[in-house]
Amino acid sequence: MTEEIIIAGFGGQGVLFLGETIARIGMILGKNVSWLPSYGPEMRGGTANCSVIISDDEIASPVVFKPSTFFALNRPSFEKFENFVEKNGIILMNTSLIDLQGKRDDVIYISVDATNIASSLGNIKATNMVMLGAYIKYKKLFDLYQVLDFISKNSKSKEFFEINKRAVEYGYNSI
After folding, report:
1. pTM for the full model?
2. Which among 57, 65, 60 has a CA at the least distance from the CA of 6?
3. By the number of CB atoms within 10 A of the CB, which of 1, 74, 92, 96 ranks highest?
4. Minimal CA–CA distance to 141: which of 7, 28, 11, 12?
5. Helix (H, G, I), strand (E, B) or coil at 107
6. Could you give the CA distance from residue 109 to residue 70 in angstroms, rounded to a whole number?
7. How far apart are CA 160 and CA 72, in angstroms?
């Protein structure tokens, strides 16, 4: 099993944190992982993306050219990376910020109203955790309770954990 992921959006949307979270959970589960962040000098508000690889085998390079999964957190990222996704791959679209239809018929598009869900939970910064919930339900690489346990053990505060827990659960139940 090898899962190659690109996560892309605006700086400040938690793109890098989402990628690091997925990589660290994979590592805890005994997988080989790679996490490669990429962001502009302005970071917050500029573009950010990261590549994550989770594999049963050794990883030769951290660079992802044809992701099996693409998290599109905003429209410019969707437009930039849509065509790179491998055939039969999935594209998780934050439809709160992407008002386009997918152009391809050889990938699976999963619509997640992530920013609006996070906003309704009281913290727009939880958009990335809503997307994580949808991803784990669809891909089934991780168990929901493994992810919540990881978030619990790695949260700065009880409040941070509660918001992220609710966001993951809402994302999980949104598809």
Report:
1. 0.94
2. 65
3. 92
4. 28
5. coil
6. 10
7. 24
Q: Enumerate residues 6+ apart whose C-beta is below 8 A from 66.
A: 4, 84, 85, 86, 89
DSSP state string for 79-91: HHHGGGSPTT-EE
* d(C-alpha 9, C-alpha 159), whole Å: 25
Q: Which residue has the tokens 């099993």?
A: 1
Rg of the chain taking only CA atoms, in angstroms: 15
pLDDT in tens, 76-109: 999 999 999 999 999 999 999 999 999 999 999 9
Q: pLDDT, tens digit, for every residue of 26-70? A: 999 999 999 999 876 545 566 799 999 999 999 999 999 999 999
Cα–chain center distance at 38: 14
- Spatial separation of the C-alpha atoms in residues 89 and 91, rounded to whole Å: 7
